[in-house]
Structures are given as C-alpha cells and as structure tokens.
Amino acid sequence: MNRKFTDVFFKHLFSIVALFSVLALGAILLFVFAQGTMPFIVSTASGIRLVAQRIDTLTVNGVLYQDHSTFIDIPKNAELISIRFPAADGEETLDIWVDNNEKDPQKKLKLAPSGEIKITYPESYVHTVSWPAAISALEKRIHIILPEPPYGLGKFLAGLEWRPSRDKVFGIFPMIAGTLIASFGAILLGVPIALLCALFMAEFLAPKPASIMRAGVELLAGIPSVVYGFFGLMVIVPLVKSIFKVPSGNTLLSAIIVLALMILPTVITIAETSLRAVPLAVREASLSLGASKMQTSWRVVLPHASSGVIAGVILGISRAVGETMAVILVAGNSPQLTVNPLASVRTLTSTIAMEMGYASGRHSEMLFSIGVTLFTIILILNSMILWFRRRMEVE
C-alpha cells in the first residue's frame, strides 16, 4: 500500500513539475517574442510627449502641471503646443506648431520661442529646448519626444548601419554576418580536430590513459566562457597582432580561434561517447575482412556513430552562435560588414550584452528583436543539420 501510494505521489509530482516547467518556458518565449515583434507592429507612443526638467510648474495648452515627473501626453492630432512657465524675470513662452503630415522628424515641428533659448536635437525623434542659466546644471529644459513609427522588418534584417542613440537606425545584417562567419569558421576549424581527438581516445588509446584524457576534456567543458575570453585576450590577440602585423589583434580570426577552442570539449565528449557505444562486433567484422585499424575506425566506426557525432556538432554550433563574453573580449565589436579575418566584427550576442544595460524605449525593444533573430538562426541551423542526418540515415 505504501509503495503504491509513493509511486502515485511521485508520478503526479513529476507531472506537475513538468507542466510548470513547460509553462514557464512558454511564458519566457512568449514574452521575448512579444517584445521582439513589437517594434515592427506599433509606434512607441500614440502622440507627442513632453518631459520637463528643472521646471516645477508649467502650463501646456491651458492645462496646469505641478511637480510633474512623468510624460505629458499631447493629443494625437494637435497642431499647436503652447507652453508657459514662470521665470525669474516674468514668464517663459514656447509655441510649437506640429505638421502631422510630415514624416521627417527634423521637419515635423516648427518652434517659435520667445527669449534667449537653445534648441538641440540629440536624437532624431527628440527635440530639446534649453533656457540658459549661470551654470549648465541649472538650465531649465523641455524635451519634446515624437512617436517613432513601426520599424521595417526588411530594414532591420538587411540594414548595414547600427546607430541606435542618435539616428534611430537599427540594421543588424553586419552582426548576422559576423555571427555566422565566426561560428562557421569555428566549426570548420574545431570539428575536424575534435573528431580526430575523439577517434584517438575511443579507438587507439589504452583504457587507462583514455580515462585520464576524458576527465581532462570534461574539465575543459566546465570552464566558464569568460576564462576562454581572457585567455584569448592575453594570448591569441597578441599573437594575431604580432604574426599578421595588424594595428589590433581583436579581429574575426581571434574570435574564430577562441570559439573553436570552446566547442572542442563539447564535440569531443559527445563524439567519443558515441564512438565507444558502437558494438564490438562491428569492429571485429571489419577487421576480419582484412581492413586495418585506421580503415575500420574511419570508414566503419565513425559512420556507425554518425548520429551521436552530428548531435555533438549541433551542440557545438549552438554554443558558438550563442557565445557572448569570450567574443566581446576578442572580436573588437565594430558593427561593420566584412569577410576580412583580420578586421573587427560584432556578433548578435555581443550587441545585446553591451547595450542592454543602458538601452530604453525602441532601442531596448530592438535588442529583444535581436534575441528573436538569434533564436531563429539557431533553430534554422539545427533543423538543417537534423534534416541532413535523416537523409543520411535513409540513404
């Protein structure tokens, strides 16, 4: 009775835990996809917004605001914004005419200020009006924030420039190219080495030395990525700079080498486990037909373990595409489109890590969009590899 009760209890417990895990994962994915698709569907706001800085009392279109610390929303189709607030020598006035048919944010507003003021455009969709004071820290300011329209998906994916702060330009094609080139370069460099190492450990090395080497490889798999990045920064970057005589060693080549080193333990561990799982009868059959040890390993054992080897390659690609800290330290982080291995590049993950701390508004939403793009790239790559594996199995 107690055993039956325990079995039923744990069955339901595991079912509940699995259900909540799936729901939590689904909620996270839904949140990321919602945030990532929002910039291409809706505007940042329904209308113009004002933010007053160091102004305690002001009147906007006849409405009095006191100690207002949030946005002041202007009706969507308003053609005139009249701002008044008290000053030491009377009253400051600012009238703004709005051309609702104008698409260019620099031409959408026509300001008619009174008195001695300064108008700046720190961002495409933000106009700042300042009233000079004895020191800049005491200047009264009003920030006029225009709504940003939905961003074009094609412009986002195929754009060649990334200028989020001033011009609100969000083109990520150079970062997509940098991510794919660095990842495939690491795969081309690392996977052959990993396969040869796995074959050596599984087929040619004695059991005791193989177990020692296997423990070392597993230890390498547990090293944090920032340690690989620090190693790359201290060793690989100076070597690249010295060998190729370039101004800086923070290049695409450095990123490829570091990523290749990082994926080695993962691919080696999974491939070696798959190779050791091949039945001994397969090896004996090949050897009995006159094949050498090398021919048996390369032409019989390796194809027989192809499913596990491909799984290791998939995990290696996923780690290379999703790597962040190591790439930040060695790649140079310049968002430029290049195939030159001695040029600086930036990856998608690096952009998210470097800019999420200070991003806001549309900029922050675009970083979520980069995350969705990265997820889609990994999904497509893994699907292609799985399709290729199934095709090989059928043939």
- Give me the secondary-structure category: alpha+beta
Pattern of helices and strands = HEEEEEEEEEEHEEHHHHHHHHHH
Distance from first to last alpha carbon: 52 Å
Return the domain count.
2
Number of strands: 12
CATH homologous superfamily descriptor of the largest domain? MetI-like
Average pLDDT rating:
87
> What does the radius of gyration come to?
30 Å
What is the CATH architecture descriptor of the largest domain? Orthogonal Bundle
Strand content: 5-15%
Strand adjacency order, main sheet: 4-1-10-9-8
Taken from the alpha-carbon principal axes, the silhouette is elongated
CATH topology of the largest domain: MetI-like fold
For this structure, what is the CATH class of the largest domain? Mainly Alpha
Regions with little confidence, pLDDT below 50 for 5+ residues: none
Tell me the helix content: 55-70%
Question: How would you sum up the major sheet?
Answer: 5 strands, antiparallel
